[in-house]
From TrEMBL:
<dbReference type="GO" id="GO:0046872">
    <property type="term" value="F:metal ion binding"/>
</dbReference>
<dbReference type="InterPro" id="IPR024344">
    <property type="entry name" value="MDMPI_metal-binding"/>
</dbReference>
<protein>
    <submittedName>
        <fullName>Uncharacterized protein (TIGR03086 family)</fullName>
    </submittedName>
</protein>
<dbReference type="InterPro" id="IPR034660">
    <property type="entry name" value="DinB/YfiT-like"/>
</dbReference>
<feature type="domain" description="Mycothiol-dependent maleylpyruvate isomerase metal-binding">
    <location>
        <begin position="8"/>
        <end position="136"/>
    </location>
</feature>
<dbReference type="InterPro" id="IPR017517">
    <property type="entry name" value="Maleyloyr_isom"/>
</dbReference>
<dbReference type="Pfam" id="PF11716">
    <property type="entry name" value="MDMPI_N"/>
</dbReference>
<dbReference type="InterPro" id="IPR017520">
    <property type="entry name" value="CHP03086"/>
</dbReference>
Amino acid sequence: MSIQEFDRRAVRASVDVVAEVTVDDLGRPTPCAGWTLADLLAHMTVQHHGFAAAARGAGADPEIWKVKPLGSDAVPLYTKAAEEVLAAFAEDGVLERGFTLPEFAPPEPGGKPVFPATRAIGFHFIDYLVHAWDVARSIGVDYRPEPDLVEAAWPIALAVPDDERRTRPGAAFQPGLPVDGTTSRFDRVLAVLGRTPDWTPAS
């Protein structure tokens, strides 16, 4: 199965989870340290816009990646952004393109893309597989990604750099946690990316 299809399924699952969010939920805490659910949805939305732009050769523009508050329209704005990035990733020839992702690495001299498409879409895939869990935990709904998605995510999670970038304000992933004692492969994915698998809003 292609990385685009893995990503499409993860994003669709995230849309289903986000559809459960109400305006009253937006102030809830999330597994992302210091982020409310409103903050998390704003991050998820702008990342869709940024990756869509990168797929179309415009990822170097820093304005595209600036997080903006979504207010009470957070859910429909997220859904619209998800459709945008899925359309961008489905375009003919997208896997032959390079992606400029300034949040991951600065553009090369002359603004040339720095990531092959497959790797860039893999970043997006792991982000939304995990962020869907973040949203689900925040609002207390069930979220169980399909086993083949988890298996595809495992090597990508291990490849995400676990360095000082994870300690910066606004980092999407926290420093990795020990995986000993985790009960499933997905729990291991979560731990590697700094999540406590049994996190609840009262944690």
